[in-house]
Design a protein that fits this description.
single chain, 255 residues, Creatine Amidinohydrolase, five-stranded antiparallel sheet, 4 helices, 14 strands
């Protein structure tokens, strides 16, 4: 069942999303060579807690980190570690959840570490642009949910990338994962009709090579099967009367 949110609930989610966005602002300058993912995780927790929220992912299903930090060929659910040290030319995806007064915000950004290749920049940019292109064109009342999925797939595949099939976006609110599930692929014109008050975490996950992924022995870390790079971009949005509002970007961010 898809739960449409009241204005009061949306305001609380707006606060949760703002805190998530603050984490990106604080952590991006620290995504440099020599920093461990454990250090980034600690800093993220400090930002979340100092703003009156709690890290949503901590303990979720047994996850040990405060946020997920995925480097290079790790697509999602990377466990922060003192042993993982960022290097020049890496890319790092920060997947952040914050719960504020019982309501969740969830978003992800992929950042370059130092100087990266032009092809790596293109991967990161395509992943981000696929999100914004899809929601600008399709996130409004009366459209179908799969219109967003279809637009993401088209944008990425036209540029030579693949989209894993095993992981999706999702509804969000009091729970981190609510109905509906939101694939990054599919035919347009299917699925639930978008209605005002729906809160959705839309998250393109894009591979440079094969569509396949594999889960490591820790039960969390998901990597590409061919070891090629992957990127991840996500925002929580709410469907409004005439479109959408992103809840996990700062007021001065361009979108």
């Amino acid at each position: 069942m898809i739960i449409r949110k009241s204005m009061r609930e949306i305001e609380l989610m707006r606060e949760a999303g703002h805190i998530v966005a603050l984490v990106f602002k604080e952590l991006q300058p620290h995504c440099v060579p020599g920093v461990t993912t454990a250090e980034l995780d600690k800093l993220a927790a400090e930002v979340i807690k100092s703003n009156g929220a709690i890290p949503t992912f901590k303990g979720y299903g047994g996850f040990p980190g405060n946020i997920c930090i995925s480097v290079n060929d790790t697509l999602i659910h990377g466990i922060p570690s003192k042993k993982i040290v960022l290097k020049e030319g890496d890319i790092v995806s920060l997947d952040v959840g914050a719960t504020y007064k019982g309501y969740c915000g969830d978003a992800c950004r992929t950042f370059p570490v130092g100087k990266v290749t032009e092809e790596t920049k293109r991967l990161i940019l395509t992943t981000k642009e696929s999100f914004w292109t899809a929601v600008r064109e399709n996130a409004k009342p009366g459209n179908r949910l799969s219109d967003i999925s279809h637009a993401i797939q088209n944008y990425c595949e036209e540029r030579g990338y693949t989209l894993p099939r095993d992981y999706t976006g999702h509804g969000i609110g009091r729970e981190l994962h609510e109905d509906p599930y939101i694939p990054n692929y599919g035919e347009a014109g299917h699925g639930p009709i978008l209605r005002e008050g729906m809160c959705l975490a839309i998250e393109p996950m894009v591979n440079q090579g094969s569509v396949g992924t594999r889960t490591m022995a820790d039960g969390w870390t998901v990597k590409t099967v061919d070891g090629k790079l992957c990127a991840h971009y996500e925002n929580t949005i709410v469907i409004t009367a005439d479109g959408f509002e992103p809840l996990t970007v700062l007021p001065d961010e361009e979108w």
